[in-house]
């Protein structure tokens, strides 16, 4: 009986924790993921995008080599680049995070492309994002499923507060 209450209390406590995860290796490495979200797949789409902020709160450079998301068969690190007045997306083999640097994975910049879902992604669902680094570190973080409509609404609200001179 006590185990049942303990399990319920633990799950409630974990659900209240913010989407902030810190990985530590020894005392020197601190990596932080914040605001991790993945968009639901649109009908007939074969891929979707994921965004978050990655902070390196350590004096050592970190090299991100790979990412996985639970429930998805393949995840790639991508970036948007401007070339000959055109914007295009390209796969990134590894990404260097300098000491005390924050990299924002966001539309129009670095982002994750996710493919091959094993099931339907449901709005509000929490998956697990795992980042793999060249030195062997792994960083796990919850990543929340959001709808594209929700994301577009937030962007419109942010622009509506902008005042023109």
UniProtKB/TrEMBL annotation:
<feature type="signal peptide">
    <location>
        <begin position="1"/>
        <end position="23"/>
    </location>
</feature>
<protein>
    <recommendedName>
        <fullName>Copper chaperone</fullName>
    </recommendedName>
</protein>
<dbReference type="InterPro" id="IPR007410">
    <property type="entry name" value="LpqE-like"/>
</dbReference>
<dbReference type="InterPro" id="IPR036182">
    <property type="entry name" value="PCuAC_sf"/>
</dbReference>
<keyword id="KW-0732">Signal</keyword>
<dbReference type="Pfam" id="PF04314">
    <property type="entry name" value="PCuAC"/>
</dbReference>
<dbReference type="InterPro" id="IPR058248">
    <property type="entry name" value="Lxx211020-like"/>
</dbReference>
């Amino acid at each position: 009986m006590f185990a049942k209450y303990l399990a319920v209390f633990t799950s409630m406590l974990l659900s209240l924790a913010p989407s902030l995860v810190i990985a530590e290796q020894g005392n020197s490495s601190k990596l932080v993921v914040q605001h991790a979200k993945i968009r639901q797949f649109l009908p007939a789409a074969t891929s979707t995008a994921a965004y978050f902020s990655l902070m390196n709160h350590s004096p050592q450079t970190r090299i991100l080599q790979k990412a996985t998301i639970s429930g998805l068969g393949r995840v790639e690190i991508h970036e948007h680049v401007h070339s000959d007045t055109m914007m295009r997306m390209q796969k990134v083999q590894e990404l260097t995070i300098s000491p005390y640097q924050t990299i924002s994975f966001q539309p129009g910049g670095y982002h994750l492309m996710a493919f091959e879902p094993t099931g339907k992604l449901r709005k509000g669902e929490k998956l697990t994002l795992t980042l793999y680094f060249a030195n062997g570190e792994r960083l796990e973080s919850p990543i929340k499923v959001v709808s594209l409509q929700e994301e577009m609404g937030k962007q419109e609200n942010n622009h509506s507060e902008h005042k023109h001179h």
